[in-house]
Specification:
By secondary structure, the chain is of the alpha+beta class. It is built from five helices and five strands. The protein is elongated, with a radius of gyration of 41 Å.
């Protein structure tokens, strides 16, 4: 009988321990859920603030008026479709005939090759066309007689000033 009472007592103790563990664990879970909910609320508020800022920025940019200047030409459609090209006379090109101030014409386009020898594979040969039409030099290099490569032709865009008048 004593053994039976001890077993009942032991069973009661185990039951009490299990119940106590459940209560503690459920408290931890509730605390974790509360923290998760607080974090989620904070993230939602930040997202809402960010969305409001984006909306405000969009509204500000939509209300700003673009700066538009009227074309000088009476034929407005033609001028709006055409990029402005600078026209340069041969007299103006001729004034730029030194390595530190070197303009040259190649196929009717004016290029500024000032101080370009450092980047030019042919070195100072580039200055042979300063202040002149260098089309023949470009199409027949001084040392080889060969025309410049496609790559060299593509590099011309970086030196472009305008069209010859």
């Amino acid at each position: 009988m004593l053994l039976l009472m001890y077993m009942k007592y032991d069973g009661l103790l185990i039951s009490v321990l299990i119940l106590y563990s459940i209560v503690i664990l459920s408290g931890c879970v509730s605390e974790q859920q509360t923290q998760n909910q607080q974090q989620e609320t904070k993230v939602n508020e930040e997202n809402k603030n960010n969305q409001q800022q984006i909306t405000q920025n969009l509204n500000n940019t939509q209300t700003q008026q673009p700066i538009v200047t009227e074309p000088k030409n009476e034929n407005k459609d033609e001028e709006l479709n055409q990029p402005q090209v600078r026209k340069i006379s041969m007299t103006e090109v001729a004034k730029h005939n030194k390595p530190e101030d070197c303009w040259s014409v190649i196929h009717g386009k004016v290029y500024n090759f000032s101080n370009a020898a450092a980047k030019h594979p042919g070195g100072e040969a580039i200055y042979l066309s300063c202040g002149k039409d260098g089309t023949n030099l470009f199409e027949s290099k001084p040392n080889s007689g060969r025309p410049h490569s496609q790559r060299a032709r593509e590099y011309l865009q970086y030196y472009y000033l305008g069209e010859l008048e």
